[in-house]
Prior knowledge:
Oligomer: single chain
Number of strands: 10
Strand content: 25-35%
Shape: globular
Largest sheet: 8 strands, antiparallel
Amino acid sequence: MKHVFWSVIAICATLLGAVGQVRIDEEALGKSLGGWTKRAKQAAEYPLSGATYRTYKPEISPTPDGGIFVSVRIDHVRGWLSSDDHATLELTVNAKGMVESAQTNIAIQGRSISSDLILGVAGAGPQAVGMDRAVQIGTDLVANLSAKLLREKIVEAGRVSFPAAVRHNYNRLFQAIRMEEKAAEASAPVPPVETEKSAAPEKPAEPGKPADSAAEPSSDTAPPLNIQPFGEPVPVKPKG
């Protein structure tokens, strides 16, 4: 029974020591964008809404609460004689793998257009959780960026569709979020080592009885007793 008890304790310690780790599956992300084939396999290039865009592998750093901060660079490829436009998409993912906030910045013709920081609770409302909240964050992000582009009177086709490219990357990033179980380095309780049982204490002698029969000499080692008959006459030897 003791072995069964300690086995159960060890299993419980292992289960409690398993913690989740959030990460971005870069291979899945690259495949969803057409593959990491450009710039020494560090970027993916793809057509979208009649324009060409390029996405680089994300930069990822851990956050203090166990989540990750993800930053992705997106280029609008304009051709040989024109400089490309650039955008940055930033996501904060909590330790449970849910998007907490998102923000993007676009640089066009020397002008920088930044969206507001879209927070999960503020943007999606307390009733939206999980995937619904992530979808709402992406919708609010693109709507906010598109409104600011219109105020700047951007009319070129590839530039007008830049918010759509940002949303495209946002969706692919969300689908590449992974949660993995990682066993924490915690030692399981060690069962106590059973030692040999010590000799039982000697039972005290009862009053009026010898303290211990084992203390008396055994019959094998005691000297023999010389027993002679009592009261019999001693034979007299006759005179010769």
